[in-house]
Specification:
Protein name: Nitric oxide reductase NorQ protein
Structural class: alpha/beta
Pfam family, one: AAA_5
Strand content: 15-25%
Distance between the termini: 51 Å
CATH superfamily of the largest domain: P-loop containing nucleotide triphosphate hydrolases
InterPro entries: ATPase_dyneun-rel_AAA, CbbQ/NirQ/NorQ/GpvN, CbbQ_C, P-loop_NTPase
CATH class of the largest domain: Alpha Beta
CATH architecture of the largest domain: 3-Layer(aba) Sandwich
Number of domains: 2
Largest sheet: 5 strands, parallel
Mean pLDDT: 89
Strand order of the largest sheet: 2-5-8-1-9
GO molecular function: ATP binding; ATP hydrolysis activity
Order of helices and strands: HHEHEHEEHEHEEEHEHHHHH
Number of strands: 9
Family: Belongs to the CbbQ/NirQ/NorQ/GpvN family.
CATH topology of the largest domain: Rossmann fold
Number of helices: 12
Radius of gyration: 21 Å
Helix content: 40-55%
Low-confidence stretches: 4-12
Shape: elongated
Length: about 270
């Protein structure tokens, strides 16, 4: 590879949404895209799933349609509906339909939060048919080669009422995400916040201690996202204890005893 090509690749990487790989996840994503396979991402809140998808969509040069799923999300929210516009009733595509028509990547974040009819509309897109039926318009859209469906969820919040059926899960290539290894997480937090690496290392060490409390006093461990928030406030001049209170205590629990336990761990780290 020539120096010119290397410099060009480096310039492209710098324009992409920042993401620090921790394994072969980028290669797997590219293979799934090239082979027209749907992809399922599993991992805790704030571990980098959404940033990863943004990074890969930009790297592949495809438009990204992100949907944050919730209890009221219906299939019509994804596919589209008739709306009154300028005195006329017109069909307006939803994000999934737009992604199919334009050959983009549709990312459904926390897909288990959506209503059951959402997974039903996804099924024809997740097998060799790659079809999207639009019953209200009578269309049957065939997904182009550059369309990709990506969904994610947090297994830690799964329960009997909110889980993907085995028949749905087995329609996807899947990969598990977790919080990055300490060194990589330090680099991420430093890059995103502007705080010095050694100071970020202390925050990452603290996060490891707090994550050990998951399942005991905490429902979820400290996310990398919260560490970035904390480091950003510290870099902006906020005292450490105030920054950690606002980002590593209050968002994690409302229980006074748990908050006091978190503060004790923080004080033991920073004095």
């Amino acid at each position: 590879m020539s120096d010119t090509a290397t410099a060009s690749d480096s310039a492209v990487e710098q324009t992409l949404p920042y993401y620090e790989p921790v394994g072969s996840e980028c290669a797997l994503f590219e293979q799934a895209y090239q082979q027209r396979l749907p992809l399922l991402l599993k991992g805790p809140t704030g571990c980098g799933k959404t940033r990863f998808v943004s990074h890969m969509a930009a790297k592949l040069g495809r438009p990204l349609f992100t949907v944050s799923c919730h209890d009221d999300l219906t299939a019509a929210d994804l596919t589209g509906r008739y709306l009154l516009q300028g005195g006329e009733t017109r069909w307006v595509d939803g994000p999934l339909t737009r992604a199919v028509r334009e050959g983009g990547i549709c990312y459904l974040d926390e897909v288990v939060e959506a209503r059951k009819d959402v997974t039903v509309v996804l099924h024809p897109l997740t097998d060799d048919r790659r079809l999207l039926p639009l019953e209200r318009t009578g269309e049957l859209l065939e997904a182009p080669d550059d369309f990709m469906l990506v969904v994610s969820y947090n297994p830690g919040y799964q329960h009997i009422l909110k889980s993907l059926k085995p028949s749905t899960r087995q329609r996807f290539v899947a990969m598990s995400f977790d919080f990055p290894p300490p060194k990589a997480e330090c680099e991420i937090v430093a890059r995103e916040s502007g705080l010095a690496y050694d100071r970020c290392a202390a925050l990452v060490n603290l996060a490891s201690r707090l994550r050990a409390m998951k399942g005991q006093d905490l429902e979820e461990g400290v996310s990398t996202r919260l560490l970035v928030y904390c480091a950003t406030l510290i870099a902006a001049g906020m005292p450490i204890l105030e920054a950690t209170q606002a980002t590593l205590v209050e968002p994690l629990s409302d229980d006074q005893d748990v908050q006091e336990g978190l503060l004790e761990s923080i004080k033991a780290t920073f004095g």
